[in-house]
């Protein structure tokens, strides 16, 4: 009987580990941008290397400050209409600076979605957008405390009857959702990812952010709550293109 119990426990453990691996791979085929900030590269290979405008990459993090920001241009991936913005960020300054921890912007038009700091409500993260067309306050938004904590933020934009259903998450917990805004598309050759500024027109734009950003991702699908909860920093089966490529290849041989 004891052997049978051990056998069942072993099977359950293996299933749990397998489910965990599958969960980490959630929607990897829809991952169109992935930045680990070991260098300037997008690990998927859809974006040009990050251009640093005073911001710096150090210790595996992107550090943005007032007047110091970064962006990645020349997107070559599939069209983005539904999307999920994902970022791990630790604030260095809790002032109301209206900058972004991750923005998807269109280069040729005033069209962006962003994870914005305290533009409407002090010490709260919010969904930023052009002319507030896709912006409202999340019903369960969290007022951040000045601890310098690394938080995991996700905003998803789901197509529901040709309108966006916009949902926010903080550390895997839902901040609520709302329906707002007509669908928009960011095609290859006309999209940029931005950190620090809320959005830009060329090399100028509003908003500042003082923060350390550990990892960012853009998906061209709206992740579900379960998928958001399953994600962990630095864990994904997509083969990296940057410094991690050598380590990745070694791990695959084992």
Rg, nearest Å: 19 Å
- Report the sheet with the most strands, covering strand number, pairing sense and barrel closure: 8 strands, antiparallel
- Provide the helix percentage: 10-25%
CATH topology: Jelly Rolls
What is the end-to-end distance? 35 Å
The helix-and-strand class reads: alpha+beta
Q: What does the average pLDDT come to? A: 86
CATH-scheme architecture: Sandwich
Description:
It is a single chain. The chain is 15% helix and 35% strand. It has 3 helices and 14 strands. The strands form 2 sheets. Strands 1, 3, 4, 6, 10, 11, 12 and 14 form an 8-stranded antiparallel sheet that branches. The longest helix has 23 residues, at 2-24. It is globular, with a radius of gyration of 19 Å. The two termini are 35 Å apart.
Quick summary of this structure?
The protein has 254 residues and is of the alpha+beta class. It is 15% helix and 35% strand.
List keywords for this structure.
globular; alpha+beta; single chain; disordered N terminus; 3 helices
Ordered list of secondary-structure elements with their pairings:
Elements (H helix, E strand, L loop, with lengths): L1 H23 L6 E5 L15 E3 L2 E3 L2 E4 L4 E4 L10 E9 L8 E6 L6 E6 L7 E5 L20 E11 L2 E8 L2 E10 L9 E5 L14 E9 L5 H6 L13 H10 L1
Antiparallel strand pairs: 1-14, 2-5, 3-4, 4-14, 5-13, 6-10, 6-14, 7-8, 7-13, 8-9, 10-11, 11-12
